[in-house]
Design brief:
This protein has one domain. It has a three-stranded mixed beta sheet with strand order 1-3-2, with helices on both faces. About 55% of the residues lie in helices and about 10% in strands. It is built from four helices and three strands, in the order αβαββαα. The termini are far apart. It binds zinc ion (ZN). The site of zinc ion (ZN) has 4 residues, from helix 3 and helix 4.
């Protein structure tokens, strides 16, 4: 696993900006801890997603991407990092929590898409 040859600073700036956007939009406090990025194969991502159709994955402060990710995919996972770090859905039972986190990530992703 390695980062594509665009430099780590590129990712730090991009992710920090995405995290700030999520904080401002949700009115939640800023998240200063950046997630780790791991570039893996699509097969590995499908395994992480329990065979579901997904193109990236987030767990325990790590974003798993394929090398042909796009910014929208990255942004979606950054929203999950924000949710995790702020504990926004921490007290909601797990099934509803999963749905609430996904719904929220899609809403914020749509706003971000219109904004940029
Ligand atoms: Zn998601």
């Amino acid at each position: 696993m390695r980062l594509p040859d665009v430099g780590i600073g590129h990712f730090m700036d991009k992710i920090a900006e995405m995290l700030l956007f999520v904080s401002l939009y949700l009115g939640d406090y800023p998240v200063n801890d950046l997630p780790a990025l791991r570039f893996v194969s699509i097969e590995d991502i499908r395994k992480l997603c329990d065979g579901h159709h997904c193109s990236a994955y987030y767990s325990r402060q790590v974003i798993y991407l394929t090398e042909d990710y796009n910014n929208e995919i990255l942004f979606h996972e950054v929203v999950h990092h924000h949710q995790e770090m702020t504990g926004r859905w921490g007290t909601v039972p797990s099934r509803e929590r999963w749905e609430a986190r996904e719904n929220e990530a899609h809403v914020v992703q749509k706003i971000w898409n219109n904004y940029k």
